[in-house]
Design a protein that fits this description.
This protein is of the alpha/beta class. The protein is built from five helices and seven strands. The longest helix has 17 residues.
Length: about 200
């Protein structure tokens, strides 16, 4: 089993990678394009890191909670919240992969490039389901299945992406409906192109 990655060690430099910032923006834009966000919604962004997706979605929502297991990442997000004056954005330190759940109920739960860092996905989906209001949505973006070449360092990588069928099946087995999985962007590394999928599903 792979070890978990120390995200505290990279938190201060996380936003300095243009490719990472661009990808987060494209994922956030795709979520906004595929799900009609409401100013009456409370949302949760799991594995939020420094809030690259969190802060882009927040203006369209009543509240946005960024949850992460890394205090260093949340420290960076807190500083950005203070700088931007985003009064509706909050942070919560918790480890969903370890069974910890944020408090509250949500209308939308998002994640961006987080699931491949989590060993057991189906229990996580059950946890997300328990935190959603009826009619609420999940929007989960991650790599399409790849050969392991995307990450230079495999530490903390439990999955080399996911196929569309795999994501679809896991969400259906978890009890979600209106499941859709589609490619939303690509990440270029050298001459290699790595598609990124967005899975959307609703709790009926």
């Amino acid at each position: 089993m792979t070890e978990h990655r120390d995200f505290n060690a990279v938190a201060m430099q996380w936003d300095e990678e243009p490719r990472r910032v661009k990808l987060a923006g494209e994922i956030a834009s795709a979520i906004q394009a595929h799900i009609h966000l409401s100013p009456e919604w409370d949302a949760l962004d799991i594995g939020c890191g420094t809030g690259l997706v969190t802060l882009q979605l927040a203006p369209s929502l009543r509240s946005m909670t960024g949850a992460d297991s890394s205090p260093g990442m949340l420290e960076r997000l807190t500083a950005k919240i203070q700088q931007s004056g985003s009064a509706n954005v909050h942070t919560e330190l918790c480890d969903l992969a370890g069974g910890e759940l944020p408090s509250g109920k949500y209308h939308l739960i998002t994640s961006a490039m987080t699931m491949h860092h989590i060993d057991k996905i189906e229990p996580l989906l059950q946890s997300l389901k328990s935190m959603l209001h009826t009619g609420g949505w999940v929007a989960l973006a991650d790599l399409e299945s790849e050969d392991g070449s995307f990450h230079d360092d495999p530490t903390g990588i439990f999955h080399n992406g996911f196929s569309a069928d795999e994501l679809f099946g896991m969400l259906e087995r978890a009890g979600f409906s209106s499941v859709t999985v589609s490619p939303v962007t690509k990440v270029m590394r050298g001459e290699r192109s790595y598609p990124v999928l967005l899975a959307r599903a609703q709790l009926r």
